[in-house]
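Hello support,

Our group uses your service weekly, and this is the first time we've seen a run hang past the timeout. The protein is Beta-ketoacyl-[acyl-carrier-protein] synthase III. I'm not sure whether the cause is the sequence or the server load. Input pasted verbatim:
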Amino acid sequence: MTTGHHCRGPAAVISGLGACVPPRAVTNDELAAYLDTSDEWIRRRTGIASRHRVDPGTSTGDLAVTAAELALKAAGVTEADAVVLGTTTPDRLCPATAPEVATRLGLTGVAAFDVSAVCTSFLYGLGTAAGMIAAGMAQRVLVIGAETFTSILDPADRSTVPIFGDGAGAVVLRAGDPAEPGAIGRVLLGSDGGQSDLIRIPAGGSRQRTSGAVAPLADHYFRMNGSDTYRHAVERTTAVAREALDLAGWEAAEVDRFAAHQANARIIGAVADRLGVPAGAHRLSNIDRVGNTAAASVPLLLTESAAAGLLSPGDRTLIAAFGGGVTWGATTLVWPDVPALTA
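Update from on-call engineer: The timeout came from a worker crash unrelated to the input. Re-ran successfully.
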């Protein structure tokens, strides 16, 4: 069952956005030089032409700090009551990465924690932050999605290496009026653990470690069942997005901008088609340049689109994502007049 938070108190309102990708861009031709693939094959199956990859020594926390600094600058503030970091690739298994990110931002002492829902992590973080604001636990929350996803890929796996990239995006949420532009609508979230093997890293967790078995190196890398993932992603994302539209009282044709998790161009297109969101500028996309950045995907897309003028004040915006777990989520908002900074 899909569950969502219904704001009874103040709404969470976007007041600034920031995003970054590592400077190194990796083209399809570069991958084709050592993988059994080609530029044409990758573009046709995924819609991706290039993706960004961190340099050795750059961590998820490093990207998160950069994106967060830009978001805080855009919002014109230096303080927040909480930091929520969505990621699949924390700097360490223990402790969480968010407290260190918060301290590096000068926010020592605030609540800070990681959220792990793979590609839906940012929406899970957004819902959590909105709940904190509605409950009066916080007046301002920094929500970050950051990944160094290339660090968990099997370098020889042509089914995953071309798809994923690294990056980070962040938003500053403040307490505000549910009727004002930028107010996050009800955040719908769901999961189905019966499909947990679709998207996984087999080794490294307690299940493998307590088994007494030594895991082969291949089991420490990210694995994905592509065909089944595609089917579930399209079905679940379409359903939760439709529910979010119904709660907002919008028809799909009234959506000005659809910001879907940039998983795969075919998935994004299939969901938009099923919903009835018009083609063209209505469907925001940056997957051709950055690939699938997992938890960073949605905030990176929103920030880049706003900075480029593709998201304008007053735009009715639908956001949706699907990730491992499996997990899914969606929400709506009327886009506000706020700065968005990229690096």
